Amino acid sequence: MNRPHSFWAFYAALLALGVALYFISGWFPADLPIVMPWEFHWPEYLATGLTLGWFFRGLARTASRPPLWRTVLFVAGVLSFYIVLQTRWDYYAQHLFFAHRWAHFVLHHAGAFAIAMGMSGPVLHAGLPQRLQKLVDSKPVQASLNTLQHPVMAPMLFVGLLYFWLIPAIHTRVMLDATLYQIMNWTMAINGVMFWSLVLDSRPRPPARLSHLGRAALILVIELPQMVLGAILSLSMTDYYPVYNICGRVLDMTALNDQHYGGLIIWLPGTLTSFAAMIVVLVTMRLNEEKNEKAAA
User: Fold this and answer.
1) Model confidence over 135-169: pLDDT tens digits?
2) The pLDDT of residue 65
3) Between the CA atoms of 148, 153, 159 and 163, what dihedral angle is there, to the nearest 10 degrees?
4) Does residue 248 come out as left (phi exceeding 0), alpha (psi in the -120 to 50 range) or beta?
5) DSSP label at 65?
6) Which end of the chain is more exposed for a tag (fewer CB within 10 A), N or C?
7) CA 32, 33, 38, 42: dihedral to nearest 10 degrees?
């Protein structure tokens, strides 16, 4: 895979598989196994395939490879995105509020957390085609990343997107519009990866963007708004999302039960993710202190 012609073979195989999945999922959506796409989408498919392909090519090109456990986490995180976006789970997410919340928990929290823990940015960069490397390294792209990962902007976007897509009127519109639905998923996934990459960076500052204290502060900033939103949705006796009655729930449950379960997913797993992030920050802070002590000895 390190040779140019062999990677063109990978591109061809990826395209051929995508065409096959596109037609098969279009012809027999209800007859396919749960791991097959309910609605095939080229952007999600190509993003997954190309990311993994470039990642493994980067592994072959770089001498300083990440530990195996980080590689496993990165690959697992990318695959988790594919599972919630390109398997039958996406069908359930369109017809059950709590399944939708599980999907977004993966995109915004668990899967993005795993990708960030992989710390595989340099490896992925090494596997990119030269033109994409130049694009990623360009001043406009780097300036945009610096803005989006600014310590003030990052938590605002993380919490703001979670609230924005759950505003009842907006959520109803999104769930009835396929394009907006894809935009919602993409923004949640990208924002999740960017936020957790900022917080879970194991390096000291510099070269990391934030000190360990700053990362811990960001975790605390995002935690309370998530708990409040989860509590409101899990305790309220008002059905805020009647759109799932329009779409049709695939399980026999009331609208309020569906909403309450969804609120609990925001509340409890989201809180546990923040606790896990805080532990990671404290551990990396101690490890960096030990490295500094050894270097000074």
Assistant:
1) 999 999 999 999 999 999 999 999 999 999 999 99
2) 85
3) -90
4) left
5) P
6) C
7) -100
